[in-house]
Amino acid sequence: MARMTYAEAARQAIAEAMRADPRVWCVGEDLGRGGVFGQYRGLAEEFGPERVSDAPISEAAIMGAAFGAAMVGTRPVVEMRFADFALCATDELVNQIAKARFMFGGQSRAPMVIRQPMGMWRSSAAQHSQSLEAWYAHIPGLVVAVPATPQDNYSMMRAAIAADDPVVYLEHKDLWAMEGEVDPAAPFAFGQARHRCQGDDITIVAWSKTANHAEEAAGILAAEGIGAHVIDLRSLWPWDRAAVLESVGRTGRLLVAHEAVQVAGFGAEVVAAVTERAFGALKAPPRRLGAPRTLIPYAPNLEERLRVTPRMIADAAREMLA
Question: What burial letters (b/e) apply to 1-18, b meaning 16+ CB within 10 Å?
């Protein structure tokens, strides 16, 4: 076990994969200086510019070049700098990378990790703060990862690099400095949720930074005698439908919380699945918490109004039990 930050955990996972496999390499803007958030610090010095490649400011070129390299046998880690900027490479990702295995009848594949730092962070405003995970969950051919802790950012990065399918890897920018214990031997498989807290009164489903808030909310509720079962999905495709259905079958109540805009967010998929498959077990209508459908402001006080907080989650859970 070692204690490290969320950023360090992913960096360590990448370094270990690069030492073990010469086919693993990184490409993106500012990697030579360690990345915009320091998430590649030291890698250029250890592996050199051929394996830690500083790219021009063209997300489409970065994504397209990495795709070609993946198709001929390498395993690129593609840095998009911000999830918002990755939209400049949407055609390469959605129409080419996600469809490669299918279009070539399984003769080709695109084993890539597409890192997209997401979420609200220090007044980054409307073009640098979005949470777009539901977009990618909608696209066949993509794995969607949303790590919430240093442990998961280590284990999930290792799994993403080893995967034979493209992984859209969404790290929350507000978690870079979060510290935690990391066990290199801890198992992980996409589609397996983490059970953060146990309880029989209500099921709370969340992911990314909001999963940490949900665990904090469960502590607030526990002090009031309310048992919340908190499920951190960790990956949105595949997602652990079985764990959610089993929990709701016991609690009869479902609350889904995420930072992304509530309208058409992935929380709607979770609620729909539970309603279709476990309707008879429900003691109350399922509920979602998410951001309003509005642009994210620069002003800190206005930005704060859009955040889903532990108190909001606890309040919503309490209302569902009333």
Answer: eeebbbbbbbbbbbbbbb
- CATH superfamily, region 2-182: Thiamin diphosphate (ThDP)-binding fold, Pyr/PP domains (3.40.50.970)
Q: What is the CATH number of domain 194-321?
A: 3.40.50.920
Catalytic (active-site) positions:
128
> Strands 254-261 and 287-291, how do they pair?
parallel
DSSP at 168: E
The neighbour count for residue 313, using CB atoms within 10 Å, is 26
Residue 141 and residue 250: Cα distance in Å, rounded?
A: 33
Residue 86 CA to residue 191 CA, distance in Å, equals: 24
* Residue from 19, 64, 63 nearest 43 by CA: 19
C-alpha to C-alpha distance for 220 and 20, rounded to whole angstroms: 44
pLDDT digits (tens, 9 = 90+) for 277-288: 999 999 999 999
Alpha helices (H) in 98-141, listed in sequence order: 100-103, 133-137
Q: Is-same-fold flag (2-182; 194-321)? A: yes
Please write the tens of the pLDDT for every residue from 236-280.
Answer: 999 999 999 999 999 999 999 999 999 999 999 999 999 999 999
Q: What is the pTM of this model?
A: 0.96
Can you give the residue ranges of every domain in the chain? 2-182, 194-321
Q: ∠ CA 283-288-293 to the nearest 5 degrees?
A: 155
What pLDDT, in 10s, does the model give residues 67-84? 999 999 999 999 999 999
CA distance 50 to 45: 11
Q: What is the crossing angle of helices 310-321 and 208-222, to 10°?
A: 60
CA distance 151 to 164: 22
pLDDT in tens, 132-144: 999 999 999 999 9
